[in-house]
Specification:
The complex is a heterotrimer of chains A (about 325), B (about 200) and C (about 450). By secondary structure, chain A is an alpha/beta fold. Helix content of chain A is about 45%, strand content about 15%. The N and C termini of chain B lie close together (about 5 Å). Chain B has one domain (about 10-200). In chain B, helix 2 packs parallel to helix 4 (about 160-190) and helix 3 (about 110-140) runs antiparallel to helix 4. The longest helix of chain B has about 35 residues, at about 30-65. Chain B is mainly alpha-helical. Chain C is mostly helical. In chain C, helix 4 runs antiparallel to helix 13 and helix 5 (about 90-105) crosses helix 11. Classes of the chains: A alpha/beta (about 325), B mainly alpha (about 200), C mainly alpha (about 450). Chains in contact: A-B, A-C, B-C. The interface between A and C is large, with 40 and 50 residues. The complex binds sodium ion (2 copies). One sodium ion binds near residues 164, 167 and 168 of chain C. Chain C: Part of the tripartite ATP-independent periplasmic (TRAP) transport system. Chain C: GO terms for molecular function: transmembrane transporter activity. Chain C: It is found in: Cell inner membrane.
Amino acid sequence: AQEFSFKFQSSDPAGNPNFELKKDWAERVKAMSGGRLEIEMLPVGSVVEHNETQDAVSAGILDGHITDTSYFAGKDPAFGLIANPVGAWSDPSEMLRFVEYGGGKELMNELLEPRGLHFIGATTPGLEAFISKKPLDGVADLKGLKMRAPEGLVQEVFAAAGAAPVNLPGSEVFTSLDKNVIEAADYTVFSTNQAQGMHDVARHPVYPGFHSMPLVEVSMNKDKWDALPDDLKAILEVSVRDFARDMTSQLAMKDLVAVAEARKGGDITIHNWSAEERAKFRAIAKAQWEKVASRSDNAQKVYDVLTKYLTEQGLL
Amino acid sequence: MSDPQTRPPVDRGADGEAGEREIKRAVPEAGLIGRAIDRLGIVFALGIVAAMAILIMEVVLRYAFNAPTIWAHETTIFLCAIAFVYGGLYSAARDSHIRVVLVYDYVPKSVRRVLDVCISLACMVAALFFAYASVLMVEKAVLLPDGSFRLETSGSAWNPPTPALLKIFLLIVMGVMALQFLVLSWNYARGQRANKDKA
Amino acid sequence: MDFLDLGFSLKDLGIEYGTLAMFAMLLTLLLTGMPLAFVTLLVALIFTLGWFGPLAVPLITSRVFSFVSSFVFVSVPMFVLMAAILDRSGIARDLFDAMRLVGGRLRGGVAIQTIFVAVILAAMSGIIGGEVVLLGLIALPQMLRLGYDRNLAIGVVCAGGSLGTMVPPSIVLIIYGLTANVSIGDLFTAAFVPGLMLAGFYVAYVLIRSYLNPKVAPIPEPDDVPFSEKIALLKGLVLPLMVVGFVLGSIYGGIASVTEASAIGVFGVTISTILRREFSLALMKDAALQTLATCGMIVWIGIGASALVGVFNLMGGIKFVSSLFAGLSDSPTVVLLFMMLVLFVLGMFLDWVGIALLTMPIFVPIITQLGFDPVWFGVLFCMNMQVSFLSPPFGPAAFYLKSVAPANISLGDIFKSLWPFICLQVLAVAILIVFPGITGR
Ligand code: NA
Ligand code: NA
């Protein structure tokens, strides 16, 4: 019988494939717990706005959230750095291993627990693709590029690379691209960009992307977590680990289908950056990590743990 | 219509016949605090004009010089946000918030007075609760978990402390609004409104 | 805050009776004459306290914070400021005098031109609020001055001003596109003809009314204006047309985003007053103050509605609405019509953002399952929201107009004038259902 009933808010709108995957996860938690733990997945903005969920979970208004940690960069620069160390990851598994075994999980809880949240685990939609109207084949092409980037490290890195990033809300991306106000945009993964018609107005996507792979945290109110019996805690932790595999696999497959479709259509040119260009971009990004690290003790801690892991793994 | 002494008709230039609208001021029942709220309005009104100028500047810088700023949009949003929040208080002092007066207009003056007092008291209680909730919100926006002081920022490349400032502003406005509604209900109860018609 | 523990919880009502209680409370408080913004805020507060306790109240202030700091709303004060400046200069009057000439001997000419202006405004903006205020300040007094039937004039202003979200660009379609994960470009393309069709209905209605009863739209005085004077009058068109040209040019020429373009409009209008030697600091100050007051009213109505939806969703509103559809019928048509009914009823009590948040998570998957085209449904949703802007008791377009209308026009008068236009919108919804091909899908 049902013992716990939680409301989690997602950072995705209802029809988004990510949201469906999140709902599937909630269903599996229910099945695995024999119906004792029920989670209602609410779409973005349904109770509070996407950048207010941390406060709402901490106050116990929401029970938990599944959201891009970057949204909380304004609360502590450390969130911005751990959520999206631009250029650090070239594959979801690298990031997930860092979270699981490289100290990421402990870091997240060091950041979240004092704020009244408990970090259960992480997932990611994967390496985002880059939307562009202009052919982009390397860092040099970014010079003077009028582009949209969300808050956080992404914007700073592109500015450092010579682009002219604008801070536009997601809802203005399409019209601004369509009307040439911007030439490129950091948005999301290829398949979703394609579904929302972004490639109809910007025919030179860069895929696989080079710039961004967000950490999507699954976390919940700490008091409510502490009150859970151990078996339900284990179910949540293990199911989130599986959820990450589910999300990255399914979205990667969707991306491949969408890419094939776009290639067949013929009027979209997909650009893929060479290893050298990706390395150049990463070098620019790395300088920005250090800048962010100096902004708070927590950010410095993130920087230290992150670079240690990357070095050990030969990724740096 | 409200009494003409306190609300001089606006000079509508060539457009005399349509000049039924008037420049409103704080209603007399709003008291001293209402007049102060009314006076201060110009600061936020000019903020809207400034927001317009900043957007124009941004368009010029981006289109003509290919040099968009990192601060124009966030500044514009902030200026509009504080104007929106203050606008609610401003309209409360001027009693210009929209009401459905279907029943209100058809009840006797004495009942109307009771309604005025009750409505203002209810609004005051609501504003008090929102002020209390704003305190909880501001706590999170100005203090780190370890108790040290840090204003919540927007997290953008420019990273201004606008979220914290806006939350503090909201707290102040809610507090002042509670006070305004208290003054309004007190003056309605004293019967200032009994001797005039309400539109 | 233990003193608030009244020994019962609204939660005991359950979501079904809770929803009913919420609507009943809304209606009752509305009728007391309480300011509308505070009605929704108070109901949100009572349900937060009664359902979740005082610690959940920050949910409301959080929504207030998010609502006011949204970029799309920046264009609201810009449109209102534009209107306030136009209203204080002679531009609006000259424009309508010139339009009277262009409209010639056509009955209802000025009303039709107002609809035409509304469509142009709609192509410049993706939201409503600003346009209703603009037309309410500019077109309404002029139509009344020219002796138009008051109800017809009010209806044209509210319905025309709402077209902003029907004719692309449209924030309703954008939010729908993001929610349903369908192409925003496809939505814009599909909404174009339906938007014009709706405007066409309004024009047809004006023509029919004014030819059936010449009193509702008097023909301008016989054409004895000398040619030289006609030319002078036509000069009134030059500046407004230039401003429109600037704004549309900046959007479609890729110079400014839709929101930025609204600021260009204000700038253009200000330059126009300078050219006409009407500019003064006092004029700007008055216009800015009026903008502050009007935006305060408009935005606080939105704030209240947004808070209420947040609370309702936390109470389990989404689950409740979706339970209404479980096992409803196997017939796709029945399900679709029931959706239209739900949208219509919600449209009477909530604003469109709230309705989208509440219903889209439920409707879109069902629509796709039933084999309907989600793009077509997006346009249909958008058309439904046109109805919601006008339908009482919560009719945002009516509230926006009331905030700037002459004091002798009551909210009741406005709502009374809107019925024919609501019928036209419902007709448009029906046509979209029967002939989905209108969307080009
Ligand atoms: Na539009
Ligand atoms: Na309505």
